[in-house]
TrEMBL record, chain A:
Signal peptide: none annotated. It comes from the Eukaryota. InterPro entries: CAF1_poly(A)_ribonucleases (IPR051181), RNase_CAF1 (IPR006941), RNaseH-like_sf (IPR012337), RNaseH_sf (IPR036397). Its cofactor is a divalent metal cation. Belongs to the CAF1 family. One of its GO terms (molecular function) is 3'-5'-RNA exonuclease activity. The lineage of its organism: Eukaryota, Viridiplantae, Streptophyta, Embryophyta, Tracheophyta. It holds the Pfam family CAF1. This is Uncharacterized protein.
UniProtKB/TrEMBL annotation, chain B:
It comes from the Eukaryota. PANTHER family: POLY A -SPECIFIC RIBONUCLEASE/TARGET OF EGR1, MEMBER 1, POLY(A)-SPECIFIC RIBONUCLEASE PARN-LIKE. One of its GO terms (molecular function) is 3'-5'-RNA exonuclease activity. SUPFAM superfamilies: Ribonuclease H-like (SSF53098). InterPro entries: CAF1_poly(A)_ribonucleases (IPR051181), RNase_CAF1 (IPR006941), RNaseH-like_sf (IPR012337), RNaseH_sf (IPR036397). Its cofactor is a divalent metal cation. This is Uncharacterized protein.
Amino acid sequence: MRMRKHQWLRTTLSRAYYCTFSSSFPLKHVTQSNFESAVADLKTHLKAADFVAIDLEMTGVASAPWRESLEFDRFDVKYLKVKDSAEKFAVVQFGVCPFRWDPLRLSFIAHPHNFYIFPRQEVPTDSSSCEFLCQTTSMDFLAKYHFDFNACIRQGVSYLSRWQEDEALRRLNLRYEDELSEQARDVPLFSITDILFSERMKNRLREWRDGLLKDTSGGSQLEGSFLNDSNQQFQNIFYKMRPALSLNGFTSHQLRLIQSVTKKHFKDLAFVHVEGESSCSQQLVVYTDSESDRDLLKKEVMDDYRRQAEMKIKAAIGFRHVIDLLSSEKKLIIGHNCFLDLAHVHSKFLGPLPLEAEEFVHSVNKCFPYIIDTKILLNTNNILKQRMNKSKTSLSSAFLSLCPQIAFASNESCNLTFSSSVKVEVQVDDTRSSSWISGVKHEAGYDAFMTGCIFAQACNLLGIDFKLYSPSENLACNERLQKHANLLYLSWINGDIIDLSTGHRTAESLRCRDLKKWQTGILFENIVLIWGFPSDLKTAVIKDRISKVFGPTSVTSICRLDETAVFVQFSKSKLVADFLLVKETLDRSNDAFSVLHPLSTILEGGSTCAASYETYKDICSSPLSKVLFADQARAVGIRWKTKLVERKEEIEIEEQDNFREENAANTISVYVEQN
Amino acid sequence: MVAVSPLLQRRLLSTGVTKIHHKPHRQWSIKQVKKSNFADTLEDIKSHVSTSDFVAVSLQNTGFYAAPWQRVSPFDTADTAYLKAKYAAERFQVLHFAVCPFTVRASKVTAYPYNFHLFPRAELKMEMPSYSFYCQTSTLISMARQGFDFNSCINDGISYLSREQESAAKIQIGNPILAKNVTESTSIHSIADSVFIERIKSHFKNWKKTCKETSTRKEDALVRSLRKLVLGNEEYDSRPCMNIDVCSERQAQLVVEMLQEFADDVVPLIIPAKGGATRAVRVVLTSSKEDKDLLQGKLQNDEQELMTKIRGFREVIDLISASQKPVVTHGSLNDLTFIHSKFIAPLPPTVDEFMCSLRLAFPLVIDVNNLMKEISPMRKVTNIPVAISQLKNRFRTPIDMEIPCQAMENEDTIHGQNAVKICELFAKLCSILKINPAAVQSDEEKQASALEAYANIFSPFCTASEEPINGDVKIWANNTRTVSCEDLVFLWGFGDRVTAGVLKSLLQESHEAFSKEFDVRLVDNSCAIVIFWQCGLSETFLNTMNKCSDMRGALREMVSEGLRAAGYETYNRACRLGLWESRLADSLDRAVADPDSASKADSKTKSSDICNEWIINLDDL
């Protein structure tokens, strides 16, 4: 419905060529129906573009609440979370917006494209790609911004990643080799009907073959005999310049019998299975002059089959053509906080995501050598930080504060405050406007457009004069931008930045949000993960109980993962080992003292587990996603209740058990004394 | 039993000829229910359910299985079939739920179909009913092809909470609940109790007195609001109220009991704590008896409204359940595991517990597939339209479908006809099998039990009568051949390019266990299943696989290349432990490696577990 309206708008508006008043025409929506022409157009725009902004809409972000972004995410854990998200959720919309500087009009020309994509599985691939996850809130969010799910599912462009394509071709080759070498197996004749049927077919085929041999010119007598065939099961045709019989109306079992008969009794007949254009298949018995001719025919048939299958695979590449274009043109790519977007691009269009962030980054960098993230740009460049004046750097608010003339489509000539801003004209097909107002927030194409505008404006503010700028110059290598290029937020919450070209990570130095927290920092070796306690246990209570045992300053911070799990950060890493030791001892002892121990509140229920931060990483790397963390740990196969870590001071192994007992006994007795 | 003898067929044919009034196949326009018209529809469907004999249901889910081997197959026992269905029900979502109350009288079916569009929207911002769900792409595409409107489903779908989620939600919302009247006073009061009551009572009396005094006094608004600020008096719904903190349920009960003395103008409310216990009792003072009734009525209404909003579509499930009407489905295992997990409670770990829990909600569930299995030519048909047309060709059993309340607007979808078709199919089958569906409501026990014989059978490949069918051996011989689970061996680690035939010929030469009749089928491209038709050979073979020394020739070579074998119990364990890898080979590997494998050994599988022989279509894999 929405699409239809857009088409109507497009046709009526295309008459208004080069309109200068503020106008509303939709951006270019691309589905299966107009994909090929759209890509052809996009290709020319991409080649001419100075930079290309991209944006993705997904069916979700986190597969479980505890997989959402947390402050206590170490960089490797953060990558695992992003990886999990990109592997599980689907991309439903891909916005691509090439921007080109027009030296005559002194403005940028943007071509926003909004691709609906949907993993249609046109070629059978690995089973992991036959399903995807939807996060209820994300779907609701998309619905709120009028996402057209019908267009996406019915008309969305499919795709195949490079890896999937290679895999499909490899499998095809194997099958080809197999079939060339494979001898058709004999079908054992079980029943009397099978034997009779085979015999009858043998006679029929012999009759036909003999007829051909007798009268090579066509054989009227032969045709007569077969036309008598009441139900038209045999039909004389020519196949690859050879006389052939087309078999119709047989069951697959009967066809197998015929194949077997042909194989066994006729050296000059070949049974051929032809895959038709419209997926209907045809079975033929073909007459060949000699054995070598028969082999030749078989090879021809196989080659045909292979060519068709290859074509099918090529056709299934679909939307990846756009990614391949972006990659081969080596254009500067602009995204807004786009680490997750790139992970999706990698897993959907390149191949499975590597286990380590460094490897991933390397792989992305090879494919897209120039990426600039506008979120990084706005938060790390001093000039821009000043201009933003601490306002939010989310996409839409940054767009509003940096590019108000575009956002409100006001005529910039009458407003002096905007005089310094870059002009951006939007062109969709043949319609162009300098004040375009019909974008919908959170539509990938429009988001890409906004991102590009922010970037253009940011360049302007940084003093890049596009009037002096030559199109051959690569923007990413501009001295003012260079130091921001290929940097991405691995985690926005923590200010972890990763360099795509080197794989190095840096923590963002100057972020004046929560200074206290940044000064203390998070020391991951000081963290204990506790889960499986009663779900109504309050975080404050946990902190209180632990402080009672290890001292009032022992716990620096505590962070709730979900109702079943917490992170506790101790002041010293030694305390981690101590805590786990005490917990383990309490678990094992059943005496009355252990009930009085302060930690027993946390251990109530008997299924409380604890381990160091490394276990969190292990659990995050599992492909499973249970909603509650405690369930997840169980599903991952954790059967132990405490995973001890070695203390920094090495203790001799034989003493360790003794020590453990003593230590626990001490803590318990100390506590009893206090009471 | 032979379901329909040739004689009977002929008779049915002849009766059919006498009164042919075939209607051309047509589409019924069915009422589509969404969030916007849900409340209005609820009353209608309630009355239709109560006046009908049966309720047909049909679900449209976002997927069925994550990997080929996770489909329910004929070699699954009731246990593994349930575990597979459970996994699917937990993973996927119901987007569309067709409910059709219907009555069958002679050859006339009166049906009231409703199509409900569902979406698990978090109405309460509480990660309920579902944080996320999976979609199988092929399922979505086929739904789209049938004209399913995803936009309206996601925008305007009805949300819901399961019974268990509802009780959790009530606690989380923390709205005060009207205290129930204590009918029997707690008999024994300890001294502590008495002291507590007395203390609260005097405190309460004081408060009440001051309230009455101030309310009669004439003050201007400023003074009154100042007084409120200073005294910290609270108001509830513009009536004065007081919170009495309690430490236990016992105390809460005592307070409510004490307040009954003042029941004329005081309304006690329970304020729940996060864990579900009572945090405090709120006492609201009303100005008169009328005012009290007014407040109580309003509170009850508010709660009702909120709960209706929270329960959403589950109201419909509840009212079907409350009616105790027989539920007619097509593919009951799949549909009812979904219903149980989305609307009742999380699925229990075993099929027996599931059946118990389900029977409480739906005492009688009839799967038309089970009726169909009684008619031998229909045994293999699983598709409803095909079944209907085949029955039409074979038996002239005209069924007159009457749908009194068709939707006014012309919904141009071919989608959502399933429930109506189930009604039609059910009526046809009943008439062929000479079951009188009307008897369900009557007291004729004999007739009612005829239908009950087909009820509550959830294993999709078992028939009501376990005996193999004699008579038409020729065509269906394959299908009735059964084998004990003990004679099945799973084989994997042979690479993904081997066909069942190649594997069979390889095995034939490798071990003496394969000298007798056996079969090989591929379950998916990573794993095959070997059927030993002679008892005991599977054990011989598995023993050899465990001892490398006894192996010779081709088998030895295959084992050195990674061939592994395991009995049915390993497969069972893989399902039980939820090791749902996308390749069965990986799941079996994990099941073998599982540390618990030794401890929880084979106690559960009995040799009596029989499953039908199956035909796996190689094209499907």
